[in-house]
């Protein structure tokens, strides 16, 4: 049975990373399984096109100040009309705040709806400066309303699921994301590329692959680099990504061996960068999955991640977790690099191989109560 799965999202830009990748891969997977995915997202103009991930519709949405270009689907009346025209069999929403009202629309329209928890509510609130206790109480109120409005809440990790368990929600399911194991691989490691970005005398090449925004805590990577160099470690850092904090980070990096590469749109080039680094840093304390970290593992590059995020659950023993201080990150980097290179790179790849996109697509379709495999058209009968 083919289902029209309408997917709504906010907070994506042409240079977005993990969320845009997840939407693309899931759409391709839904299409391959015989369904009809339709993605609705904000943009500068109206558009409606057929893509490898299915139909993609953009509606004009305002740029949110201070976000580095994020837009939102702000015209509820128009979005409601579009949903009625699309007449979805399933609704999937990748925004826990401004689009939460669509769960109530789906209930009235008798459309099974799924909200995808790409981040924890209390983690985001704490990242933006709200005290922990207040953030937890506000998140609980928000999550109770979400759990009531949607048929299911999909969490990508057990870490992300905890805040729904805390409020006693019974409609939460787990569905991990994935990684392209063909595109991201150890074979892309390039001595020439490494030499291009590692200054003379640098023995360790670190990589931060992240949007440069407050919730990602990119400054921790600069501070960890400074700490390592103060300890005599000849390390350098590549920063692949852009965002509202870039100018300030460039000022803070003066005097340190840091290369700001900006947004890297070429996925092949990004895969080569991740394979050519010695170690990837993922300092975001509110990450619930971390696709760029998983891509690094698939490339054979270990990861040091914030211990307060979900990434320790994802990376396992293919890296290390660190408390959110420069000294702790420097300690973790030193510990990981002390492991034999061949062993640590093999462990990173082996960990990533547990997270193929085929498994992720199957888990998401199961959350939708949708057939996972394409329907087969019966062929002609063969005489006995």
Helix and strand arrangement:
Layout: E1 4-9, H1 18-32, E2 36-43, E3 47-51, E4 54-60, H2 76-86, E5 90-94, H3 101-109, E6 113-117, H4 121-127, H5 132-149, E7 152-155, H6 158-166, E8 172-174, H7 191-197, E9 204-209, H8 219-230, E10 235-240, H9 246-252, E11 258-262, H10 267-276, E12 279-282, H11 291-298, E13 303-306, H12 311-315, E14 319-322, H13 326-337, H14 341-352, H15 357-367
Parallel strand pairs: 1-2, 1-5, 2-4, 5-6, 6-7, 7-8, 9-10, 9-12, 10-11, 12-13, 13-14
Antiparallel strand pairs: 3-4
Helix pairs in contact: 1-15, 4-5, 8-13, 11-14
Can you describe this structure?
There is one protein chain. The protein has 384 residues and is α/β, with parallel strands linked by helices. The protein folds into 2 domains: 4-178 and 357-367, Glycogen Phosphorylase B (Rossmann fold), CATH 3.40.50.2000; 186-352, Glycogen Phosphorylase B (Rossmann fold). The chain has helices at 18-32, 76-86, 101-109, 121-127, 132-149, 158-166, 191-197, 219-230, 246-252, 267-276, 291-298, 311-315, 326-337, 341-352, 357-367; strands at 4-9, 36-43, 47-51, 54-60, 90-94, 113-117, 152-155, 172-174, 204-209, 235-240, 258-262, 279-282, 303-306, 319-322. It has an 8-stranded mixed beta sheet with strand order 3-4-2-1-5-6-7-8, sandwiched between helices. Helix 1 packs across helix 15. The longest helix has 18 residues, at 132-149. The radius of gyration is 21 Å and the shape is globular. Residues 376-384 have low confidence and may be disordered.
